[in-house]
């Protein structure tokens, strides 16, 4: 007779809620070429080990992390405007990675690197404590439906983890064109004891953040955009 196993059944590990859905996007020939030719130089492989940023960029400079750069237009423009800063962009969608690589080549930028991976894991495994001079989170998915609000990136747990990687005096800059999400962001960021709002509520758009075509179109239609800029105490 087989010996019975009296141990309780193991529950499967709880799956983390993702703030994004990986979509299959069409890759243009220019993006495919950029990935093949420029990817080895500018795309960093995700590894569960701390980045040596001086080795990666060949210099010591303030480091800004951008989470979800989309097609990379704002990222490239900001990097060109702020050449004394280095930028690491996290984006899971391959067409966006290819598009930013094209812009890096066109603008001859040397201060951007890309990690095509979930930013939560990149933060946890690759970014050291107090390393970042700033973090940019521009127009994250607002997850409009109430049942999907748990997928929004800006949540107390994520922000508490994020501030561990920002240097004292460093900043967190978020922007959204969805007012209910802006209100949630303001509530969550204001409740984080390590952060201090630089404005009395929402901030004026900092000069370094360019207006996107989508944003310009929305402004002409009377749509709002909300910037939030907080500093780490």
From TrEMBL:
Pathway in which the depicted protein is active: tRNA modification; N(7)-methylguanine-tRNA biosynthesis
Keywords for this protein: Methyltransferase, S-adenosyl-L-methionine, Transferase, tRNA processing
Record's keyword annotation contains Nucleotidyltransferase: no
Reaction it catalyzes: guanosine(46) in tRNA + S-adenosyl-L-methionine = N(7)-methylguanosine(46) in tRNA + S-adenosyl-L-homocysteine
Binding site for S-adenosyl-L-methionine: 66, 91, 118, 141
Record-stated family: Belongs to the class I-like SAM-binding methyltransferase superfamily. TrmB family.
Function: Catalyzes the formation of N(7)-methylguanine at position 46 (m7G46) in tRNA.
Record-given protein name: tRNA (guanine-N(7)-)-methyltransferase
Species of provenance: Pelomonas parva
Gene name of the record: trmB
């Amino acid at each position: 007779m087989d010996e019975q196993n009296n141990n309780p059944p193991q529950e499967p590990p709880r799956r983390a809620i993702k703030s994004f859905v990986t979509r299959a996007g069409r890759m243009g020939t220019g993006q495919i070429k950029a990935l093949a030719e420029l990817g080895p130089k500018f795309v960093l492989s995700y590894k569960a080990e701390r980045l040596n940023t001086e080795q990666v960029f060949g210099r010591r400079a303030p480091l800004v992390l951008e989470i979800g750069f989309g097609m990379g237009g704002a990222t490239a423009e900001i990097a060109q405007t702020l050449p004394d800063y280095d930028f690491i962009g996290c984006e899971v969608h391959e067409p966006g990675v290819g598009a930013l690589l094209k812009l890096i080549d066109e603008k001859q930028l040397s201060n951007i690197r890309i990690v095509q991976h979930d930013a939560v894991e990149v933060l946890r495994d690759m970014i050291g404590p107090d390393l970042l001079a700033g973090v940019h989170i521009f127009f994250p998915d607002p997850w409009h439906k109430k049942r999907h609000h748990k997928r929004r990136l800006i949540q107390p747990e994520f922000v508490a983890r994020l501030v561990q990687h920002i240097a004292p005096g460093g900043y967190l800059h978020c922007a959204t064109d969805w007012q209910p999400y802006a209100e949630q962001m303001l509530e969550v960021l204001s409740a984080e004891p390590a952060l201090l709002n630089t404005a009395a509520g929402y901030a004026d758009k900092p000069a370094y953040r360019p207006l996107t075509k989508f944003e310009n179109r929305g402004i002409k239609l009377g749509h709002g955009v909300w910037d939030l800029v907080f500093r780490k105490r």
